Amino acid sequence: MTNTDLPSSQQPFVTRVDARRCEVMVDGEIVSALLRGKLFEDIGSDKNPVTVGDYVDLSRTGDDWAIDRVHERRNTFARRVAGEESDRRQLLAANIDQVVIVNSVGIPPFSSMVADRILATCSFANIPAALVLNKADKGKRGKMKKIVASYDNAGAKMIITSAVDGTGVEELRDLLTNKTSVLYGLSGVGKSTLMNRLDGDLEIKTREVSGSLRAGRHTTSHSQWYPLTGGGAVIDTPGVRKFRPFGIPPNDLRIHFKDLHQFGKDCDYDDCTHREEASCKVLEALANEQIAASRYRSYVAVLEELEEKYGGTGRIVEKTGPDHKARR
Ligand SMILES: Nc1nc2c(ncn2[C@@H]2O[C@H](COP(=O)(O)OP(=O)(O)O)[C@@H](O)[C@H]2O)c(=O)[nH]1
Ligand SMILES: [Mg+2]
Ligand SMILES: [Zn+2]
């Protein structure tokens, strides 16, 4: 992508969302804007009508700005809402170039379950994904090698970093420059430290951007857009341990575990779920250690979760939100 695709200074876009208010970048300045009630009328299965990265139309009511319309989205990064509202989709970001999943090999320990759920979600949403293994200064070599090997054919670039000794920081900067990236990772993996190491201005910028608008509010529970000095932007999202994919029909999950699918496409049954089926090529590859056991476990866990949600493997009962039509 080129610089011209970055958020233009003309079209306002959302940099942060709260319950009934947003922060919107308008000609290089952040303004606070209300969400008009009508935005909530046609949101389908979505929990939230507006997300970070959305391009919006604004209007003024007295001294206040309000969002009238959300432009058609190029893509969405989303998860299933937890608990009672689990039939709904929670948008985390829109119009992004990639998702960077940040993990730690120190404390907290690496979680393949978190990474794998997001990788499948990104594949489904057609968004490139990369994996960062941070705190390499604390990781054991053998353990890190094993993690890297388990993602060999999973369809994501992997970068090993340390915000302490600077390992991989240049490579990470290259990955992020001139793109809009979602940073996803559990609290404590080192996202903020990495960003500040990568971009010395970022801390100052975030403080500038926050100003009085955000006084007294918690920043950790919301997605937040930050510009990078070298071009591009990152969207910091609060990581949850149980990231539930939304909208993937159980039967389609197979193709979103790319390393499994490499073998699974040759299974005897087109709809092989790779569990008990006879002469299943995935089970064979698993036995031959051509597929990481952790990846297979993640696949089965997500598949069972989706089957429970959909009432079986084949039935499709939910639709994704109204992404593909512009809202009026
Ligand atoms: N040893 C080590 N500690 C790190 C590294 N990166 C971050 N930390 C520490 O991990 C803790 C959490 O970092 P923070 O950036 O707040 O994590 P976030 O919640 O993902 O934003 C802090 O105490 C950091 O100093 C790293 O590469 N190595
Ligand atoms: Mg942080
Ligand atoms: Zn199979």
Structure in words:
The chain is 25% helix and 23% strand. The chain has eight helices and 13 strands. The longest helix has 18 residues, at 293-310. The chain starts with 12 loop residues before the first strand and ends in an 18-residue tail after the last helix. The chain has 328 residues and is an alpha/beta fold. The protein has helices spanning 112-125, 141-150, 169-176, 191-198, 202-210, 258-264, 281-287, 293-310; strands at residues 13-17, 21-26, 29-35, 56-61, 64-70, 76-80, 89-94, 98-104, 129-134, 157-160, 180-185, 224-227, 233-238. It folds into three domains: 3-73, Beta Barrel (OB fold (Dihydrolipoamide Acetyltransferase, E2P)), CATH 2.40.50; 77-238, Rossmann fold (3-Layer(aba) Sandwich); 250-310, Ribonucleotide Reductase Protein R1, domain 1. The strands form three sheets. It has a six-stranded mixed sheet with strand order 10-9-8-11-13-12, sandwiched between helices. It binds guanosine-5'-diphosphate (GDP), magnesium ion (MG) and zinc ion.
Secondary-structure-based class equals alpha/beta
Query: What is the N-to-C order of secondary-structure elements (H for helix, E for strand)?
Result: EEEEEEEEHEHEHEHHEEHHH
Question: Count the strands?
Answer: 13
Largest sheet: 6 strands, mixed
Summarize the model shown.
It is built from 8 helices and 13 strands. By secondary structure, it is of the alpha/beta class. A 6-stranded mixed beta sheet has the order 10-9-8-11-13-12, sandwiched between helices. A 5-stranded mixed beta sheet has the order 1-2-3-5-4, with no helix packed on it.
